[in-house]
Specification:
This is Phosphonomutase. The protein has 252 residues and is of the alpha/beta class. The protein is 48% helix and 12% strand. The chain is globular.
Length: 252
């Protein structure tokens, strides 16, 4: 399947109240494992991909190496693949568009794109980040792929849980602006309060993605709240690290 049909199929998997479950992968081997388990689609997690290659998160993994890993994943499975693009390996709209241009020929169906300042603190100003999203959309359109751009806000990751209620208005503002700029979905990692999740799902036009953690409601609850996508971030890789370390200790 070429990348355009894969992207369309990936988009169709996002349904409010019937969340697409993505067990995040980090290489071709983990992709094959998750595909064999019956996954409908695949998604990388930047932390996991970087850690598996001995790098820290935060765009420390060289873009050429990321492209090589993505190429091996898409060669290993025909499932739609979403790539965690972090902040696009740059700040300007032109730079993030060039980053996407490097990956589109590899057959990707979607990306995660975050508004947090990589290597710094805080978020990109709203208008500036919308221009970045618009540049990604224009690049994908020029390539002929209806790419699923999952616009991630780091509002909730960068603040303690007792401040999340105060931040919900800003999240709603960003979600609306990101949708207008060309985003396909809205990702709110770090948000775990069920009432706030329900409000996002009710008031945001885009499909809402929640990251699964120990604090997050379980999948049946998220389904009832209207979540359209549930992903696991670095959790699966950390679980594998623990398993391998424990297994090694038993044999060493």
């Amino acid at each position: 399947m070429s990348s355009a049909p894969k992207a369309a199929a990936f988009t169709a998997l996002h349904a409010k109240g019937d969340p697409l479950v993505l067990v995040n992968i980090w290489d071709a081997g983990s992709a094959r494992c998750v595909a064999d388990a019956g996954a409908k689609a695949l998604a990388t997690g930047s932390w996991s991909v970087a850690a598996a290659q001995g790098y820290a998160d935060g765009e420390q993994l060289p873009l050429d190496l990321l492209a090589m890993i993505i190429d091996r994943i898409t060669a290993t499975t025909n499932l739609p693949l979403s790539v965690d693009l972090e902040g696009g390996y740059g700040v300007s709209p032109e730079t993030v568009a060039a980053t996407l241009r490097r990956l589109l020929p590899l057959g990707i169906a979607g990306i995660n794109f975050e508004d947090g300042i990589v290597g710094g603190t805080g978020l990109h100003p709203l208008n500036a980040h919308c221009k970045r999203i618009a540049a990604l959309r224009a690049e994908a359109d020029a390539f002929g792929v209806p790419l699923f751009i999952n616009a991630r806000t780091d509002l909730f990751l960068q603040a303690p849980a007792d401040e999340h209620t105060r931040l919900i208005a800003a999240a709603l503002e960003r979600a609306a602006a990101y949708a207008e700029a060309g985003a396909s979905g809205f990702f709110a990692p770090g948000l775990a309060d069920r009432d706030l999740i329900a409000r996002l799902c009710t008031e945001v036009a885009l499909p809402v993605n929640i990251m699964m953690t120990r604090a997050t409601p379980d999948l049946p609850t998220l389904r009832a709240l209207g979540v359209a996508r549930a992903s696991f971030g670095p959790g699966p890789y950390r679980d594998m690290q623990t398993y391998l370390t424990d297994a090694a200790r038993r044999h060493l």
